[in-house]
């Protein structure tokens, strides 16, 4: 009985083992680890550039705001009743154009009175002159005394002075009368508000209107003291420093629109704003059509700055590693080696490399994700477009230099 039970158990175990082998045996279609095959995979193909130092354009951009060339306040030189306004408020006026007329009646009367006084003074002078001409020959013959001669001469001179005073009064009265017609002192756009017709205005006090001269137009912008010192250091390293006349200024009015007329740097403040740490600067642009309006926000692009002897690598060639920015440099037998670098400012062609790279070295610029440090690659030469001076800016909200970067 015991033997029978043992035979049944052994048979069951054999059947179970056979079933396990049948179900879990490896299939002919199952993948088999191909360690040897993987190790024999060809090196990845990557795009490679050979870097060389060159003079790189370094355009910069800043936020700016348009300002009028000058704002002229139009105030009356004489007071009186405002009779007429001969322009539309907010319209463009030209220099010498009649703007306002003030009641001239009072000044016409003053002119008539001054002219009458002048005639009176001229009559007194004629009488004094005639008296002097009678006394002078009598005094030579001894008929008249020297005292009488001196009195006649004094009366003549006083009469002459009286005529000059009266003439000045006439001229003053004519000026006041002419001031009742107010003309534009400059060409520009008038303000939207002015005193109503019939208002009583006061000389030198009432503001009649304000004329904003728009041609040319100023554009105010600011740059940091750090950028100013970097530019000075760059000029010190150059054989021929960059002058302000070589700098060209462009305006960007929107995402794609640009102002067609170039400008130039006008002036820069000789002090640093203690609150913002920036230096105020101003550019000037021709504005004959009045397209630039005071208060308008624009982007100021300055070109003409170059970085001599600089090496530029494309942005896609730079990756971030434990030691900071890193690139892959090809050595002997096309072995890729990871090398940490120090980046300078961003330029239209990529990043300026300040340290860690020399001219003539080969850098992986495409396919960086397929590269493994210390492993060979198949280099394929790449053509990199040379940076242009009209490219995107190296400074500003879209192009800040790398941390610690300097021109």
UniProtKB/TrEMBL annotation:
Domain Multidrug resistance protein MdtA-like alpha-helical hairpin: 111-180
SUPFAM superfamilies: HlyD-like secretion proteins
Region Disordered, residue ranges: 374-407
Keyword Lipid metabolism set for record: no
Primary site of residence: other
Domain called Multidrug resistance protein MdtA-like barrel-sandwich hybrid: residue spans: 70-207
MF terms (GO), sorted A to Z: transmembrane transporter activity
A biological process from GO: response to antibiotic
Recorded GO CC terms: cell envelope; plasma membrane
Domain (Multidrug resistance protein MdtA-like beta-barrel) ranges: 244-303
Compartments where found: Cell envelope
InterPro entries, alphabetized: MdtA-like_b-barrel, MdtA-like_BSH, MdtA-like_C, MdtA-like_HH, RND_pump_MFP
Domain Multidrug resistance protein MdtA-like C-terminal permuted SH3 residue range list: 311-368
Protein name: Efflux RND transporter periplasmic adaptor subunit
Organism (species): Microvirga makkahensis
């Amino acid at each position: 009985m015991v033997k029978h039970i043992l035979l049944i158990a052994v048979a069951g175990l054999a059947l179970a083992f056979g079933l396990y082998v049948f179900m879990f045996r490896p299939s002919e279609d199952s993948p088999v680890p191909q360690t040897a095959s993987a190790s024999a995979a060809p090196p990845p193909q990557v795009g490679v550039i050979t870097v060389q130092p060159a003079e790189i354009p370094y355009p910069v951009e800043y936020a700016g705001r348009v300002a009028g060339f000058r704002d002229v306040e139009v105030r009356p030189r004489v007071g009186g009743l405002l009779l007429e306004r001969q322009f539309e408020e907010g319209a463009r006026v030209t220099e010498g154009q009649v703007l306002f007329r003030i009641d001239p009646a009072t000044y016409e009367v003053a002119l008539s009175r001054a002219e009458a006084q002048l005639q009176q003074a001229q009559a007194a002078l004629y009488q004094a002159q005639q008296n002097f001409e009678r006394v002078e020959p009598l005094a030579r013959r001894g008929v008249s005394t020297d005292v009488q001669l001196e009195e006649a001469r004094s009366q003549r001179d006083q009469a002459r002075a009286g005529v000059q005073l009266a003439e000045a009064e006439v001229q003053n009265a004519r000026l006041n009368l002419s001031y009742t017609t107010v003309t534009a002192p400059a060409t520009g756009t008038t303000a939207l508000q002015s005193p109503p017709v019939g208002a009583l205005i006061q000389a030198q006090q009432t503001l009649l209107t304000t004329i904003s001269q728009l041609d040319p137009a100023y554009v105010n912008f600011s740059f940091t003291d750090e950028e100013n010192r970097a530019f000075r250091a760059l000029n010190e390293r150059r054989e021929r420093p960059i002058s302000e006349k070589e700098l060209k200024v462009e305006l960007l009015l929107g995402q794609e629109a640009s102002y067609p007329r170039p400008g130039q740097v006008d002036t820069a403040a000789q002090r640093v704003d203690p609150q913002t740490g920036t230096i105020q600067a101003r550019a000037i642009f021709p504005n004959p059509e009045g397209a630039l309006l005071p208060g308008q926000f624009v982007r100021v692009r300055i070109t003409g700055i170059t970085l001599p002897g600089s090496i530029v690598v494309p942005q896609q060639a730079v990756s971030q590693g434990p030691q900071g920015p890193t690139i892959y440099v090809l050595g002997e037998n096309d072995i890729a080696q990871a090398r940490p670098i120090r980046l300078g400012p961003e330029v239209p062609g990529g990043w300026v490399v300040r340290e860690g790279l020399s001219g003539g070295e080969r850098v992986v610029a495409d396919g960086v994700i397929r590269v493994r440090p210390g492993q060979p690659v198949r280099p394929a030469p790449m053509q990199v477009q040379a940076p242009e001076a009209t490219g995107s800016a190296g400074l500003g909200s879209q192009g800040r230099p790398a941390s610690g970067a300097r021109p």
